[in-house]
Amino acid sequence: LMQLKQLYDNRLNGLQDQLRQALEAIQNDELIKAMQNDPTTENFTELRIQEIIEAVFNRENEEYFQRLTEQLVEAENTIQLLEREAQQYIDNLNEVSAVSNRMEEQLKKEMKAREFYEREFRSIQVEYTEQSKNFEELFRTVSYTHLRAHETPEHLVCRLLLEKKK
Description:
mainly alpha, 5 helices
């Protein structure tokens, strides 16, 4: 609303300036002065005044249209610049989206690989535990008495010979 009021005030001031210019041009026009002094051309004075007023208003209209044209060109340039910037933002957004999608796919692959390795690790851990138990059973220590209880006559001869050497 304020902008509209300002436009109205500017236009009103412009019209007042045009009227001043027209009055000044009429008062300073030598042709009008000459026509008013000559009874044969006195009737054409009104046409000359109309010509001056039209010239002043037409000049202002041309200036106004020139300003509007310049503003339009400036607005079009701004729009083109904004469109290029918007396209750059869209391109950047598409690029970020593509990178994000690739990272998401890579993350999914890595998570599947991690799950696989965790399963393998647990499987190896279970197998290791079982093997450890088996190993302990195979190589558990036994008492000397226990060994002697299973001694065969051949073992006894070998043992006695070894003890005799010492």
